[in-house]
Design brief:
This protein folds into two domains: 124 residues, Rossmann fold; 67 residues, no CATH class. It is globular, with a radius of gyration of 18 Å. The protein is an alpha/beta fold. The strands form two sheets. It has a six-stranded mixed β-sheet with strand order 6-7-8-3-9-10, with helices on both faces.
Length: 243
């Protein structure tokens, strides 16, 4: 279980997160909000790439800062930017990432095969990353994130820049990965999450607006409509709706 307790963060005195608290258990959670809502800031704090001004992250009741390296072993992260080594083959890239995650050398080959199979890239491993399509690059980034079978998987805009066919493929892949672990997927593409997310976390200007299932949000904010109507009803005005 992941607990986010009273988390706040400001940049040059401008609040990015304002006293965020929530509890997250196994399943797929969509982190939804417009640009500037605080999604990336929250992700960077959870992944320990950024320090909060106040508040803390706990995993199974223990602060992540206290867990240190043990928490990072539980964590898989797919960043938004595709910062790939274009001259590396897929196999070399995954081997490099496995080594960074301290996977025993004798286990790396099998782990590469396991994660590449999960993302349907087994036959593409010996191609250079520079020759990969956008969708293939996104899938290899997910593959590196699941090396070591992390119990907490953070995905920052995993469908960004993909065509509709690849987005459906990516959505189904992420849904499958959520069994037996926590998956937090940040996105601003509402249609990507309506049918697959166990719960939707809505952020607006650094504040938690809602955390509930799609059906609960629809019932509360846009009866007999859809999650896109929920999004518009919340983010089209400046009023903060909290549930």
């Amino acid at each position: 279980m992941l607990e986010i307790k009273n988390l706040s963060k400001s940049y040059n005195r401008k609040p990015a997160l304002k006293d965020i608290s929530m509890t997250i258990e196994n399943g797929l959670y969509a982190l939804l909000g417009p640009n500037g809502a605080g999604k990336s800031t929250l992700i960077n704090i959870i992944t320990d790439n950024l320090n909060a001004d106040s508040g803390e992250i706990l995993y199974d009741g223990t602060p992540s800062k206290k867990l240190g390296a043990d928490f990072r072993k539980l964590l898989g992260f797919m960043p938004q930017q595709q910062g790939l080594y274009e001259t590396f083959t897929g196999r070399r890239f995954l081997g490099y990432m496995a080594a960074l995650k301290k996977i025993p050398k004798k286990e790396i080959s099998a782990e590469i095969e396991r994660v590449s199979s999960l993302v349907n890239l087994s036959d593409e491993l010996d191609k250079r990353l520079g020759a990969y399509s956008g969708g293939m690059k996104q899938r290899i980034l997910i593959a590196q994130a699941v090396i070591g079978d992390p119990k907490l998987l953070i995905l920052d805009e995993p469908t960004a820049g993909l065509d509709p066919k690849e987005r459906v493929r990516m959505r189904n892949l992420i849904s499958g990965l959520s069994s037996g672990r926590i998956v937090i997927m940040a996105t601003h593409v509402v249609s990507d999450i309506e049918t697959v997310a166990d719960e939707i976390i809505l952020l607006k200007e650094g504040q938690l607006v809602a955390k509930a299932s799609a059906s609960e949000l629809i019932q509360q904010f846009a009866p007999d409509k859809g999650i896109e109507d929920v999004y518009m009803s919340i983010f089209a005005s400046e009023e903060h709706l909290v549930c």
